[in-house]
Prior knowledge:
This protein is an alpha+beta fold. The chain has one domain (35-159): Mago nashi protein. Helices cover 22% and strands 28% of the residues. The protein contains four helices and seven strands; from the N terminus they run αββββαβββαα. The chain has helices at residues 2-14, 80-90, 143-151, 159-162, and strands at residues 35-40, 49-55, 59-66, 72-77, 97-101, 117-123, 129-135. A seven-stranded mixed sheet has the order 4-3-2-1-6-7-5, with no helix packed on it. A hairpin with an 8-residue loop joins β1 and β2 (49-55). It is globular. This is DUF6438 domain-containing protein.
Amino acid sequence: MRVMMAVVLVLAAGCTPVELRSPPAGAPVAIEGDSISYATGPCFGTCPVYTVTVHADGSGTFEGQRFTAVTGSRAFRVTSDEYRRFAAALAPYRPDGERRVDMDSPDCGPAPTDMPSVDVNWAMASGGAGHLHFYHGCRVGNAAMAEALRDAPKLLPIADLIGER
């Protein structure tokens, strides 16, 4: 009888409801792993417009929108070394939170119009995040950043998806 009561208590414990709550507003939420999303904006001309997202686990997605060899979504893989190189190339420009370098920001300087832009979003497994918006017309004083942002996609196996520039 004692064994039967012990079994009943164990089974009953499994039926105890667990309260599911959303984390408090502003609290970090764990995600599957680190990821970087790189999205180009349009220009006055035929600049490729696409979004590429890569995850530390090696999965990636390319979404061609305009003036790319491939339109629509395509999955691809990166090696851990390719992911690390891509992340390292962008790391010096990762803000804590949000940073915009565009014609309305004080760190732009005189800028031509009709240039493309890029948005980079970092999402960390720890819950940290960052977003950089950079207008490529803001090269004065930002040449190293402009070059790093322009060259970063070359570190990923997506050249055939982007196409000729």
